[in-house]
Structure formats: structure tokens, C-alpha cells
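Open question from group meeting: does this chain pack into something compact, or does most of it stay loose? Before anyone orders reagents, we agreed to write out a predicted structure and look at it together. Recording both the input and the output here so the notebook holds the full record.
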Amino acid sequence: MNADTQVKQQPQQKPKRNHLRRKSWPRIYTRNHRSGQVGWLVDLGFVNGRRIRRCFQTKGEAEVWAEEKRVDKENEGAKALALSPGQRAEAAGCIQRLRPYNAVLRDATSYYIEHYLKYRNAPVVLEIVAKLLADLTAAGRRPKTLEDLRVRLGHFAKTFGQRRLSEVTLPELQSWINYPEWSPRSRIHYATKISQLFNYAVKHGWADVNLAGRVARPGAEDSEPGILTVKQSNALLQCAPEFGLLPYVALGLFGGLRATETRRLDWSAVRLGERTIIIGSEVAKKRMRRAVEINDTLAAWIAPYVRERGPVVEAVAFRDGFDAMRAKAGISPWPANALRHSFGTYHLASYGDAVRTAAQMGNDANVVHRFYKALVTQAEAKHFWALRPEGEASNVVPIPSDAEHGAADATATEEVSEKARQQSLS
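C-alpha cells returned:
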């Protein structure tokens, strides 16, 4: 047997099995459409729990796309082989833990990067609080606003101060807000301030979302406001001059000014001749200007004190004087915000117009109606507005006309002494 015969008799080598396996995926087969046309379908099988198929008009297009998927698969396999056994085991474990949530490792990794690794160089809560307060101070926020924010965020920082805001979870935040010793309204206030902190952090790229906006806030129950009776009001007015606080009391009791507004007010804003007080943006809450009407009762009480300029209330030892004044008047316990609440109650009872009362107080008409309606009778309101300094006429003050409001009561007429009128016009 010669060499040529030996060569011819050698069996042909079979294709490598890995080559056959490579060509067997993905499957390519024809598909008949209802239109009569034939398409070519590439079936990748199930990928991450979802079957992926794609149809092409020609066999060539289908084979090109199938080849691209084969290359992708081989590349992915090469990447997997590049991992150490420990890394592959860790990835498998993570995939197993994600399976009950129908999540994949790629999505979990992306979430972790976006919500944690992205903010790992962010300042901790204690530092963010300090930066926020510094910025607000530089922006000219009022001391009382800053102090309230400092106190509330200080409590928050005691718990979360050394952590980053991006690390705080919603359950943790909700549990903190639900502190049982706080009233519903206190919880709302704390949630509002923490929301301000989160917004500040999001703005500076230190957190991705305002988590406080997702906290369930309690409904604040509207308790009946505490007011002064006519007798208590008169006792307070009689004691106030001794402590230099008569203007403060009168402006709150008969003008409806907020305590903070009165303490910021300058006499230059009190235009007695025009029967108007201008509450400027530097004085008003949320810097919302308004004009307050000086009624006859208020005019009679403040007339002797009005001057061209200067603070209406001296800041020195105000709190000590105020506490001593109400103690001497025998008013205990002192109702919260008693002067302003009393004004709202008696004014609404007299005029029957929540919009008018709200405009005077710089408030919302719905709030005025809800808080102050039907707390006193109209007869009690007449006695309240009839209060006058000693030596002044004490007839009933005018009850508003019913022409505009449809009230059934006739108006009464007030007689103020010539002395009071001269003082009011000076």
C-alpha cells in the first residue's frame, strides 16, 4: 500500500464540538406572516427570566444579528472567567438574594451607586445643619426664625449628627418624628424643619431626595384658642402702664398684632391721624405687608404714648416685665397668644365678617372662621370694645353697619371725650 492510498483512507476530522455549539445558538427559523410573507426569526431563548426574539425580513439580516449576539455572549463569558472564584461566588450569592424581588444584580448595583456611593463624600448631618444656619444668617433671616431652626435641627442632629442624610432611612425618620411626648403640631413643625434641611442638601448635591417629604404627618387638631375675658382684659390694661407695656397690650388686644410684630414695630409706622398702622415687611410674619385699622378703642389707649419714632416696646427686660404684669393682673394660667386670640374672637363677634377680621390680622379668612367663631356673644363683644382708660368715656363702641354684611343688629354710637379726640389727632 502506497503513501497516497494511506492518505486517502484517513478519516476526515469532525468539526470541533464547541464550533457546532457556537453555531447552534441562537436558533434561526422562518415564520409565516398572515400577509403571506415569510420572515426570519432569531430566538435568544430566556434572558433574565424573559424570552427574547426578533424578526427580520431576510435570512442575511437575521444571521448578522445572531452573530452579534454570539459575540456578545462570548465576551460576557470571558468577563465572567476574568473574575476570581471568590468574586463569582459573591455575585452568585447576590443574584440568589435578589431573585425573590425579581431584581437583577445590575439594577441593584446602579441603585447602590446612585444612592450611597455617590454621596459618601457628603458632609454629615451636623455639618449640613451648621452650613444651613450660616447661609440663612448671611441671608438676613430673623433671629427668632434662626433660633427655632437651630433648636429643632439640633434635636435631629443629636440622633443623626454623625451620619449622612443619604444614609437615613424612611422608617428611621418616621420613628423619630413619631416621638410620643410631642404633640401633633410639634411633630408637624419638626417635619417641616427637617424637610428644609433635606431640600438644602439636595440643592448642594449631598442627598438625592427629600425623604422628609415622604414622612406621614399627623393631623393637627384645632383646639379652642384661649382668650381673655372682658374682666381679665381690663385688669391687664390697668396693670400694664406700671411695667411700660400698655402699648404692647393695647396693640395686641385691640389691633390684632402678633407679639413679634409689636416688638419689632416702630412708632413711625403708627399713623394715628390716619387711623392706620403700617405693618411693613421688616415687621410682618413672612414679610407680608399689611395696613391695620386703628379703631376708636385702640386709639383711646395708645394716644398718650404715640411719638414720631422709636421702638414701641423696649427690649430690655421685656420678658420679666411681661411675666410680672400678668401675675399682678391675676391671669393664671396665661392662654397662649392670648392678646391676638382675644382680638380675633371679639372682632369677629362684632363684625361677623371673617374676611375683614383676617385682613386686620394678616391671616386667612377660613382660619379665622374656624378658630374664632362663636367663642363669645355679641353682648360680650360690646363690653370688650367699650373698655377705656380712666377718665375717658366708656359708652359702647360702634357695632358695624349691616348694610354691607346683612347683619340684623342696629349700630350703636360711641361718644369719646374731647380730650381723647384731641390726642388721637395730634
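Observations to bring back to the group:
Residues 125-214 form a domain with the DNA polymerase; domain 1 fold (CATH 1.10.150.130).
The CA atoms of residues 226 and 337 lie 8 Å apart.
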